[in-house]
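Margin note from the TA: students keep mixing up input and output lines. Inputs are the sequences; the output is the structure of the whole complex. Example:
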Amino acid sequence: MTRFLLRRILGAIPLVLGIATIVFFVLNLAPGDPVSFFTSPAVTPEVLEQMRRNLGLDQPVHVRYWRWMTSMLQGDFGVSFARNQPVREIIADILPNTLILSVAAMFLAFVGGVVVGVLQAIRQNRFVDSALSVIALFFYSMPSFWLALMLILIFSLGARNLWGWPIWFPASGMTSVDYPFMSPGAQLRDRVMHLVLPSFSLALVLAAGIARYTRGSMLEVIRQDYIRTARAKGLSERRVVLKHALRNALIPVITLFGLSLPFLFSGAVLIETVFAWPGMGRLVYGAITQRDYPVVMAGAFMFGVIVILGNLLADILYSFVDPRIRYD
Amino acid sequence: MISRGHALTATLALASSLTACGDAGTPGRAALENLPAFCQEVLPRVDAFLADFSTPSGERYGGTAVVGSIGEMPNGMNAFVSSTVTNNQHQTFVNLMPLVRVDENLQPQPWLAESWEFNEDGTEVTFHLRDDVYWHDGTPTSAYDVEFTYRRAIDPQTAFPNASFWNYYDQGPDGVQVLDSLTVRLRMEPHSEPLDPWRSTAIMPRHLLEDVPPSELARHPYGSRCPVGNGPFVFESHRTDESWSFVRNPAFPEALGGPPYLERYVYRIIPEQTTLLTELLTENIDFYVAPGPDQVPQIEADQQVDLHVFPYPGYDMVIWNTRRPQLSDARVRQAIAIGTNRQEIVDAIRSGFGEIANSGVPPFHWAYAPALADSLQYDPDRARELLDQAGWTDRDDDGIRENADGDPLEIAIKYNLGNQQREDIAQIMQAQLEPLGIRARPQVVEWATLLDQINTPDVRDFDAVVIGWRVEFRLDDHEMLHSSSADDPFGWPGIQDPDLDTLLDRLQLVTDREEATPLWREYQYRLLETQPVMYLYFIDRLAGVNRRLRGVELDIRGEWASIQDWWIPAEER
């Protein structure tokens, strides 16, 4: 196992560097210049030239690439052009926010999706199955930003102002403005309340897909001989489904886990924008439009690393659910 | 498979990561150990200094006001990189102080400078600073700070975007002279509105930034991590892309209004307008900066919020590339200007919240020529006549005019991706110009690419472009309209007009407003005739404000000009 992990991690290094290199050159091919955003006629060409010098943009591309690569390998991502802050500091601020949101969304999506999928499979072709299928398709085919806006209008604006529901959720941000002055219990509650709408918006679309996979995979497994054997042994239906069938049915779902990580990070741009969640998607998207090369590069690097780690995690999970898979 | 035990661990892990992230050393402040060394040094000094002051008492004192806006303040409180209107207002009204302010009529008023005087021939100004203004770490603000700010601002190494504000000041070693710790004298060529740079640029603390090389000032942690100002609000914390928070400065001089009523002021970044509106209506924010005109009905319908409408020093316009053959004749540009129903555009795009513009001089400005309003009325028949006179007629009966060579009168109107208003402007113009025999084609380009196409002197790949513009109170169109700037990045129209040149040059040197007014009128009329750009409208700025927040006065100076007077009744805090 250790050897497998080492091999995978070592193999990932050239991959991440390759991604970073491609992103660097593609970005530099795009027209536009980071200093051109100072579109005020008060800015003289000399000042723009000096800004370029201060940012190191007066150097040719290959020199900049070499500088960037060498400093990045030493853990230095440079300084953001648009914010004039070290990229490392910005990422340190932002990355935890993204992790909170995506871990919560992943958790909701997989638990919810698997539960719904299993329910559908054991009630195949009955009313519950069809109803859940319709609901799952409804969410699956919905643009996530639209869903997000609807959730805000219903569970925030409508719930508070129109219908006076006892509970309503804040429409944006990670915490309330008086968060620092709350008791620890109230702080946790405040964070959870702020997390509900964005994580559900992200999770619903994903869960719908997972439910479809789980259902299909469960139906296949449930017809296998060993399930019949388990039933014949006189095991309870609950035990048959949860212990024997589900474990085998989860294998394709785990593949989905690895595959959905990039979706969570890129799909989060709109969700992060709608809910004013200060996350990586928003950061990198903003940086692309501003030609803030160092931030885009660092973002691409982080995405690469996280996706590779996620897939590695999926590989490890395989070995837990499927005893046939061994990495020795 | 996931057993119950695993699921429980996952939940707990999530819960602990949720609380761990919010850990802060002092309430409101980010943990010191996460900040750069510079901040670890200065922030405790700020806290120590402010601890000696008592909280002002009175029924208006107390409470937190929350402002919501779509944009981050990318360079924070660093006045040497001032890039956005919001940044600039926070520097001049919230966290730092400029030497002078202006009243709502744009007359300079004392602020950090208690008084000033010019010498006989207008070549020297002497500022006398207040003696009761302290940096938030306890250091007195002095004339040396002014000298430091001026020297850094004009130093090319700093690359301060607004350095050209001081173009008529003496930039040599003797240009600035500290007479004593509260008196500073600057030399200049006599010119119009010489005090304006001292209104728009806040004074920066010399004692903290003196040793920073000018080329590194922009990226110093001062700006976004731990600004130490001298204004009415003290920096508390900045969470990237999330919020800025400030607390009352209890040491702010009584003579300047004293400590503000609000105990705390929070600026929240919410990039989506629907969300902003929801947050305003659910009372999570008190002040929604610049709602869209389409959101006005919902704001007006709500009992708890007020809609404010106030003038803004910005306008939208269509820039003509006069280097293009079809746009080189002023008559064609005039024809388009009177053949475009601009009121219809204002009504459609801004729901009427805008005022037709005929030049870059805003209606609230003393240099504005009111009579101008009638001179560019919508008149499609006159537009057709002008086009005929210019030699553009429909020679092949396809509905589009051609010149003698048979080239059709086609104009591509570019706008930037994602800007709905500019897209609508281009499309309305397309529809309005078609009956005149002009084929206008809206064309969308990504923002950075568009800037590249229009700013690069040897490219200028555009016929027309819809763009928004913000003016300073000291008006100067040199970089866009003077013939000597035609090959500079912002010489977009490329207009060559000796009369405009003469007026532009003279206007910058007339020091007296009364003497300048007729010249400004002449200049505005010359713009009508030459039409290097088609001015569309001046924007009426909107704001949605919760009624619990009192004392909000909004005028041309911006959203934050009255922040010292904002207050919240005790029962609504």
